[in-house]
Design brief:
174 residues; 6 strands; 4-stranded antiparallel sheet; alpha+beta; 32% helix; 24% strand
Length: 174
Amino acid sequence: MRSKDDLPHRVSDATGNALNMPMERPIIAAERGFSIVTAIFLLVVLSFLGVAMVSFSTTQHQSSAMDVMGTRAYQAARAGVEWAAFGVTNTASGEEWPDCTATDPAIAIAAGTLPGTLSPFRVVVRCSSFVASEVGATPTDNVWIYDIAASAATAGTSVDQGYVERVIRVRMGN
């Protein structure tokens, strides 16, 4: 059943046509403060969503940066392999490459030595060799086979945040 406050009252517009408009009803005491509770709830929910989005974005940026560092580490290790390939190809046929020793690294390039974006990496090239020859062949017919491993890593250890290491292994001969 409608109360007197819910019934529309008549108002006329400028042309005299009657307009039906509801009357304002008074605010009940139990309804006071409901909108502030709703507003605070919405603010809390939106702030949690904002924090989640910032956290996700930060994680994505860190992951992307580590991908780039991994690619750079690969390129630094590849530079070590290229250095070894240069040494092997410039050694006379049938002779052993003098920089290849099984006990010591053939070369260790300190971090900061390589140019540009490869400067954070320390590159270590290790090499071992053996001779392959056929029965009755002369020493100049010998073929030296080299197992080369080049590793490039940032400073620190594998448990440190931001640590990147790449290792490339190749076998070549002359």
